[in-house]
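Quick look at the format.
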Amino acid sequence: GEDGAIVIDNSSAFRYANDVPLCVPEINADAARKSGKKVIANPNCTTAIGIMALYPLHKKYGLKKVLMSTYQAASGAGQP
């Protein structure tokens, strides 16, 4: 817009901020459009991939709870 660019933040800095929309475009792009905010957060990679599989199931069956475990290498966090 005329008043500056929209920033899509891929870090964890804004993921839990109540006033920043958490957006997966294929699922809830309207959250970003309706918010009027200039910063948009996105979930971590595991959540983004998981929601792509879970959302159609939720729409059809109304999921109430999902338990999901993920395992990532310590080296992914910059540890030797």
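Next, a different chain entirely:
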Amino acid sequence: MLLFVRWTCLRQKKYMTRVTRVATGSTRDIDIPKVPTSTGQIEKTGAKGVWIPATSQDPYGGANNSNNQKRRNEAARFTYLYHQHINAIRQKSFDGDEKGIPLEYFEYERVFVDEIHECLCTTKDELSEAKKNSNDDTGFHKEKNRRAGREFLGITTKNPSQRPLVFRKAIFGLTATPLLDSTNRVIELANLMGNAYIITLSSHWRELERESCRNIFLDNLLEPKQSREIRKNIYAKCQDYLDLACCKNKNEEDMEGIVLVEKTSKIRMSEEEGEDYKRSQSGISPESKGFGIAPEDFDPTAGHDVSKFLKQNARLASRGEMLVKLCKQILSEKGNERTKIVVFADGRIGAGRVAAEFLNNEVGLGCTFFDKDTAVEEKNKMLSWYQYADVTEEDKKRPRVLVLEFAHAAGLNLQAECSNMILFTPLYIGDGGTTSDPIADASTELQAIGRVFRPGQAKSKVNFYRIHVEGPNGEECLDGKLIRRNTDKETIEMAVNADD
């Protein structure tokens, strides 16, 4: 029997009321655990670049919020009450036909957690970035939902038999998002999958997010101190486990005989486009403006606006010309007359809508494009046109090109009908200076490629095209810099966690 459950169910008051009633017989609000709504709050234990006053009362110069301990107390209370209720429920017995038995009562053969990264190790910065890049339909999970997922999985519960979800054989976390790119994520993944802490309970960073005043005393009193040699062996054993348990890119057998062919299609912008390109470099001094300007040259603290530059780069008529040329070229090849093409663009700078306009303005070509205002039902219907073969005459008359934004790069399966993909603009997410993350951008591009280059691909060759716009005289511009950055071998290895 298969059971499908949202890992945010702990956010539902009716469900927690039922858990409390079965465990204690009470329905009072004070007895019902309530998932905290705030992000994890860890006290600052170091100061960098902060003036330290000459007083022992506040050694970290006001870096710690006075309300943080209240939030930790709230989190600690939820965990304590929730596990008390679980223990009480598991002591009970139920009739075979009884309904409404809480999920925590049962043992499961295997547990599969989809999109495991949503509830693992999400920082405030990651939440802000995810919210900024999402809309109402993209499935953005607020921190209270992520926290509910962590509690439901029992990540910081040392004994796996006392976790809310007890499995007999294994627990699997599914995701296409890198999870070994930081120490905290490695620790948290080991806790969930390996049932053992890498470091002692009192020092575990996730536990510190909800350490109440009572816990601070008890943990320091009861937790045994470990020697350096013991800690060294714990680290080594946990790393051995992760090397074995974390399966990444394990689809070589399914991909045998299927090759990815990457092609770069260069085109030069016109003189007029070149002038517009330079004028869009908002905040850059007139004598410094030119084709060699990179996003790092923009200083967000000085009011420079890199978004104007990125948007103008996406709107170049020469880029649209190359996009139309590539689509026509693919469709003109023998055997590809009815093939379907996927185009990815950065929706944050409006590149998706720009690409769609170029295609729709070309007679006999056109495209399918949806944005945040498109209803979910209509969106799913549009996607299905590119997931399944054409059956009716109406199907065959539809546009051959699907334009997607990177926000839709995860979770789609387009390999059955699509074997050609075009990247309209290289991806850059940031505000200039040092605000960008090349590894995250490369990872997102790889996710986009993975919509087509994945097990189940019907063709033996997948073609991936990058549009590369140069200056009027062949100068390297933004495209060249970003393509080189996003395709750097070391960056790619880090993006897919291929490094040791």
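Confidence is low (pLDDT under 50) at residues 135-140, 196-203.

See the schema section for token definitions.
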